[in-house]
Amino acid sequence: MFKPLxxxxxxxxxxxxxxxxxxxxxxxxxxxxxEAKYFVGPWVQVLLGGTGSGFDLAxxxxxxxxxxxxxxxxxxxxxxxxxxxxxxxxxxxAIKTTETGHRxxxxxxxxxxxxxxxxxxxxxxHYNSADVKLQ
Length: 135
Hints:
Elements: H1 2-16, H2 34-37, E1 41-46, E2 52-57, E3 63-66, E4 73-79, E5 82-91, E6 94-108, E7 111-115, E8 123-127
Antiparallel strand pairs: 1-2, 1-8, 2-3, 4-5, 5-6, 6-7, 7-8
């Protein structure tokens, strides 16, 4: 009688430990402010020689690098006049994310200045939908 009771308890315990393998729900849409909607899309800083790099900011808050294999953007947000970009770096076996806020000044519908922390010299980014290469 002891063996059947033990087997029943073990089977109940093992069944309770099985994780739910159902489908994961889609990520929740983030509501963008009017100012934040301006930044949705591909933005490129044009360098000497006509080449450039930048980032593509999606409406869902995700971000990808454009022509910059050294940088891995994971997300973005806009608040208090600053564009916050989150980058991911591999440190050993772990991935470390860092969010950095950059003060921005909108020039017109297709360009803005972005000041990195501790710098008075802005980088100018232009909206660029042609020849965009996502990394």
